[in-house]
Please model this.
Amino acid sequence: MKTSNPRAWFLVLPVILLVAFNALIPLMTVVNYSVQETFGDNLFFWHGIGWFQDVLGSERFHAALGRQFLFTGIILAIEVPLGVAIALAMPRSGPWVPVCLILMAMPLLIPWNVVGAMWNIFTLPDIGLLGYTLNTVLGIEYNMTQSPLAAWMTIVAMDVWHWTSLVVLLAYAGLVSIPDAYYQAAKIDGASKFAVFRHIQLPKMKKVLTIAILLRFMDSFMIYTEPFVLTGGGPGNSTTLLSIDLVKVALGQFDLGPAAAMSLIYFAITLLVSWAFYTAMTKDDQN
Model:
């Protein structure tokens, strides 16, 4: 019979208190700004839920939120199937395993701002390898600073290149944890490759894929650095995601009240969608 030792909590209590302290103070500062109005000179006045009403009724907020959901939906639709497919194609044993793992991990080691700068240079129409190839060699008109479609395709391609490796590594970890006995039984039964994937590999990868989708949702839904460095939200506002618009309101316009309300709404949407997805994915496990 297993026994629990409550004294173990004392070992992690300092970390819990430190994390709570670092998270609580900024959060309370944002909440404070979201319900107050200021006219300078460090004078604040109670504004109630006015900023929340203004943000929720703003067409600008709805447009940025729609672009954010569209970007996240495209990212998940591409990266999750692609990551699983690459993981299935990777070797399970032999000298090529560490080579493949290192190659998959390399994009994840590059800082976010460097990724944006790399792709900015890479897509320049005159000297960038991708831009020059599309425009001059293939004769395809491409300029992400003038075409919203080209800008969207570029930021999606950049994110897929940068973060598909995370899905690959998580899916691969789920695949290598499957005992060989399952494959031997499937071989005896004459199961096809699709049947093995459908009834053995996919169910065994369910938990790691849940983690992968949650991580990619939260990261892509809050992405800022890469698209800002690459396009700055342009051309026009075509790639102004909610995260970029929030920074423009907070730092560009210095509207602290609306920015604080927008950030809390942003946080609530992210938390709510993540909770709903996790509940749906783990519903069968709880029964």
